[in-house]
């Protein structure tokens, strides 16, 4: 999992930064949204990191369907957290590394691929502050992780041991946030990427990689168990788990049922299934193909769904029934928020 403990330091740092703003973070009664994860959620943090183009999407045609400029999002348009913020009546949640951003409604730490965010422990000592406590305890925390962990070899571990390590890492982050007052968590299952164009192209005969999917299924089972366990163990802990893996697999199988023309081939890229990660021509391969209408392709590039898919996923995550999002959905996490006025007035 690409969530490093340094991000938690950054989270704390942000909370303190926030308190130094003239209006503080408490001017609104809305819950803030903090986002952690991989490229499915990255709004452009990697754009500000010195990494290779493999981990960047800050060039055309990324962003072409919605933003007038590439933003660093690995999509033709918006991502799941962008829609969740919209449904929660929040502005777009800014990338943590974006200069001069406004953190009053939350911040997005997600980072595509393996890029680790800058380390910052500043502000740790101020954590006892009631205001930062209130900001953090009133926020909703969004996680997408797992996808990247199962692309690389996991030896010398057994599958079960490796999955356990990934889940343990995520639990550590969740528990640390809980200790700082966080109570409400939105979590995605890991998508079954074995048949995604970018994985198939590495396989003999461009077949699906069943090993990755097997590992991912184990991950999703362990994730479900761990979240149930945390709910029992941590008082007040609430979560919304969205089964994005099934949602994506359904769309790959029957694209037209969901408004797509193409469920297997990427809109942008080259080679069989558009599976060569050349979209934009910046990753060492200059030539690439771009479909005419990105909305029709479930996959924008060989590793990332398009904006329409992200919108559909966000809708299910927001107010889907318990077949797709459970035990709560994001809407009930936001609506179930206690009033921010739980502290005595003189402490505010
Ligand atoms: C777990 O987290 C540690 C520390 O951040 C990291 O070095 C390790 O690679 C992670 N392991 C997995 C399986 O994600
Ligand atoms: C970015 O990374 C490369 C390779 O590690 C290095 O040569 C270069 O100096 C770095 N650039 C900056 C601005 O840090
Ligand atoms: C692209 O496809 C979508 C879905 O089929 C359609 O609604 C839209 O009008 C198309 N856009 C263009 C520019 O053709």
TrEMBL record:
A Pfam family annotated for this chain is: Lipase_GDSL
Q: Which protein family is it in?
A: Belongs to the 'GDSL' lipolytic enzyme family.
Annotated keywords? Signal
Q: Which GO terms describe its molecular function?
A: lipase activity
**Does the keyword field hold Transport?**
no
Where does the record locate the signal sequence feature? 1-27
Spell out the InterPro entries in the cross-references: GDSL (IPR001087), GLIP1-5/GLL25 (IPR044552), SGNH_hydro_sf (IPR036514), SGNH_plant_lipase-like (IPR035669)
Segments crossing the lipid bilayer = none
> Its domain of life?
Eukaryota
Q: What is this protein called?
A: Type I-1 GDSL lipase
Q: What PANTHER family does the database record attribute to this sequence? A: GDSL ESTERASE_LIPASE 1-RELATED, GDSL-LIKE LIPASE/ACYLHYDROLASE
């Amino acid at each position: 999992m690409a969530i490093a403990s340094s991000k938690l330091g950054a989270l704390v740092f942000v909370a303190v930064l926030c308190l130094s703003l003239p209006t503080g973070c408490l001017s609104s009664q809305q819950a803030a949204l903090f986002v952690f994860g991989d490229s499915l959620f990255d709004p452009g943090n990697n754009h500000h990191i010195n990494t290779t183009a493999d981990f960047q999407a800050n060039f055309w045609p990324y962003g072409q369907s919605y933003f007038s400029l590439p933003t660093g999002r690995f999509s033709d348009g918006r991502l799941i957290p962008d829609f969740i913020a919209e449904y929660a009546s929040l502005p777009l949640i800014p990338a943590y590394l974006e200069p001069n951003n406004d953190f009053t409604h939350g911040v997005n730490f997600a980072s595509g691929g393996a890029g680790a965010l800058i380390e910052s422990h500043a502000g740790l000592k101020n954590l006892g502050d009631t205001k930062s406590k209130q900001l953090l305890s009133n926020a909703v925390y969004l996680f997408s992780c797992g996808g990247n962990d199962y692309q690389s070899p996991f030896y010398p571990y057994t599958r079960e041991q490796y999955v356990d390590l990934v889940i343990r890492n995520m639990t550590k982050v969740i528990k640390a946030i809980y200790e700082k007052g966080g109570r409400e968590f939105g979590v995605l299952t890991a998508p079954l990427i074995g048949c995604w164009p970018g994985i198939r192209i590495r396989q003999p005969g461009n077949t699906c990689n069943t090993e990755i999917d097997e590992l991912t299924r184990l991950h999703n089972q362990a994730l479900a168990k761990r979240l149930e366990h945390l709910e029992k163990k941590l008082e007040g802990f609430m979560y919304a788990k969205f089964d994005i893996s099934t949602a994506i697999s359904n769309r790959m199988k029957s694209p037209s049922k969901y408004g797509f023309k193409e469920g297997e081939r990427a809109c942008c890229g080259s080679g069989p299934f558009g599976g060569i990660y050349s979209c934009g021509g910046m990753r060492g391969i200059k030539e690439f193909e771009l479909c005419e209408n990105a909305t029709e392709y479930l996959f924008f590039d060989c590793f990332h769904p398009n904006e329409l898919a992200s919108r559909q996923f966000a809708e299910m995550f927001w107010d889907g029934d318990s077949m797709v999002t459970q035990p709560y959905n994001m809407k009930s996490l936001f609506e179930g928020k206690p009033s921010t006025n739980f502290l005595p007035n003189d402490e505010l």
